[in-house]
Amino acid sequence: MLQGTLDLLILRTLVFGPQHGQGIARAIQQQSDDVLLVEHGALYPALQRLETKGWITGKWGVSTNNRKARFYTLAPKGRKQLAEESSQWRALAAAIGRILGPESREG
Questions:
Q1: Which of 20, 38, 44, 83 could cysteine-pair with 25, CB 3.0–4.6 Å?
Q2: Pairing of strands 68-74, 19-20
Q3: β-strands 68-74, 56-62: how paired?
Q4: Three-state SS for 45?
């Protein structure tokens, strides 16, 4: 994943409501049709980084399988950051799409 992509995906996932780490990873995987797999070694440092920046908040609770889990919520600063980064990523994706051009059937 490109630098900053995981942060953006986490913020986007939390738009739909509070979620624990495993739920965030599962949502990203499902919404990407199993293309994006988030490893715990990348997810939890990202969650800590986002919480330190004030973009998300976390508090302990109990998951659906009755386990202690930290649930994360999108903070107002995170919502603003998500809007800014989403705009930048859309512009970047459009620019790359223009360079790659339309798909052609070769061969």
A1: 38
A2: antiparallel
A3: antiparallel
A4: helix
DSSP label at 64?
T
CA-atom Rg of the chain in angstroms: 16
pLDDT for 9-35, tens place per residue?
999 999 999 999 999 999 999 999 999
Q: Which letter does DSSP use for residue 16 in this model?
A: T
Nearest partner of 78 among 92, 64, 57, 98, judged by Cα = 57
pLDDT in tens, 41-86: 999 999 999 999 999 999 999 888 889 999 999 999 999 999 999 9
> Coil, strand or helix: which one is 51?
helix
Reported as type and span, the H/E element at residue 78 is helix 76-100
